[in-house]
């Protein structure tokens, strides 16, 4: 069993210009041409999520054709985590790893990459870090047990050393 599963939920807590959002989706196309490994979440029902897929589910197709809904505008990362944990059981998407586009995302094209659970993906602990929007799903797809902790340790070391 893989450590993570595609697609990864993408919550937007701000209105993101369609052109920018389409570019971020395109930059997270790892598996299926024309389809991102991120699933733009536009409702608490996860309407766009694949249902009962046998393998990796599909994310959002790009480019986007119209202005999406922004139901999570102003939401906190913690609220997005709770929404993901309460997603319909038949919605095929990763239940522990997700991405949030927030106000800072509009300034520097980074997103908040999130994990629910401890190093064994148990519990409700929420851990986050900023990552370039381009390739966020590639990072998540490459996760293995212990990778997240190692990455956080390296970031902490860099902060302490001031590099």
Features:
163 residues, 17% strand, 5 strands, 28% helix, alpha/beta
What does this structure look like?
By secondary structure, the protein is α/β, with parallel strands linked by helices. 28% of the residues lie in helices and 17% in strands. A five-stranded mixed β-sheet has the order 2-1-3-4-5. α1 links the parallel β1 and β2. The radius of gyration is 15 Å and the shape is globular. It starts with 7 loop residues before the first strand and ends with a helix. The mean pLDDT is 88.
Topology:
Blueprint: E1 8-12, H1 18-26, E2 38-40, H2 77-85, E3 97-101, H3 103-108, E4 110-116, E5 126-132, H4 136-141, H5 147-161
Parallel strand pairs: 1-2, 1-3
Antiparallel strand pairs: 3-4, 4-5
Cα gyration radius (Å):
15 Å
Largest β sheet strand count, sense and barrel closure: 5 strands, mixed
Order of helices and strands: EHEHEHEEHH
The tally of helices reads 5
Distance between the termini: 37 Å
Structural class: alpha/beta
From the spread of the alpha carbons, the general shape counts as globular
Q: Mean of residue pLDDT?
A: 88
Please mark out the parts with pLDDT under 50 across 5 or more consecutive residues, or reply none.
none
Give the tally of β-strands.
5
Strand content: 15-25%
The share of residues in helices is: 25-40%
Output the strand order for the largest sheet.
2-1-3-4-5
Give a quick rundown of the structure.
The chain has helices spanning 18-26, 77-85, 103-108, 136-141, 147-161, and strands at residues 8-12, 38-40, 97-101, 110-116, 126-132.
């Amino acid at each position: 069993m893989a450590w993570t599963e595609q697609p990864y939920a993408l919550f937007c807590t701000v209105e993101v210009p369609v052109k920018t959002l389409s570019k971020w989706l395109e930059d997270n196309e790892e598996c299926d041409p024309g389809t991102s490994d991120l699933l733009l979440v536009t409702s608490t029902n996860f309407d766009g999520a694949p249902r009962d897929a046998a393998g990796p589910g599909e994310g959002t197709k790009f480019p986007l054709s119209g202005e999406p809904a922004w139901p999570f505008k102003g939401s906190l990362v913690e609220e997005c985590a709770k929404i993901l944990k309460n997603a319909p059981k038949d919605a095929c998407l990763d239940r522990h790893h997700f991405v949030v586009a927030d106000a800072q995302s509009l300034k520097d094209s980074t997103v908040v990459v999130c994990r629910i659970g401890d190093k064994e993906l148990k519990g409700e602990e929420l851990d986050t870090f900023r990552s370039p929007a381009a390739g966020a799903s590639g990072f998540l797809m490459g996760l293995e047990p212990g990778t997240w902790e190692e990455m956080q340790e390296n970031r902490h070391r860099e902060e302490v050393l001031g590099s």
